[in-house]
Structure prediction request, 212 residues.
Amino acid sequence: MGKVEPYYATEAEVERAWHILRSTGALKEGHFRLPRTKLHYERFFQVPLALQNSRDARILCVSLGRVLRRSGILYRLKKDKRFTVIAPMDAGIPVAFWMGEHLDADRILWANRIENGWGFRPFIEIDEDDQVILVDDAVLTGETLASVADYIRSKGSSVVAVATIVDRREQRDDFDGSPSYCLIHEKGGKHRPKTCPMCEEGVELVELTPQA
Ligand SMILES: [Zn+2]
Prediction:
């Protein structure tokens, strides 16, 4: 697991998160193809399965909230502006509410995909007074979070940080200057179809619907 940096989850938090994901069935092990990357994966995370139980959801989201607290990023929030937690799409909504409650956010919102981009429900608006922490259950390529972060910035709001329960990117890169945080960084267990050992063994390949 390596050295624990201050902006990483602690070993205990990471272990507890893995335990919850396993015990709730949110961690699927097998042979999966995700259309977004076209790679084959040994593990697939359906984090909403872990978030459906309020005790597990609280543990995961409070742990992620603590990662943010320890990172010091919350000191960038200015007192004279709003602190807004935003989830892109439905899977991030419980994360937004649990973390927003834990971190005492002023607003908790979720965006929706609309034609040609993103939007909020009618009459819900964000502006330059919103300092946003963008949260989601998991990030695979980062494309969705990057595009919703751009949308939020286009409204004049700032994106202070991006936080997810699971991060599957090779590098935990920031999002155009907005640092990213996670509980579990799981970059391994993926293969190009041509050199996939599970294909070679003839393990049945499960096709999953697109996600980002
Ligand atoms: Zn394969």
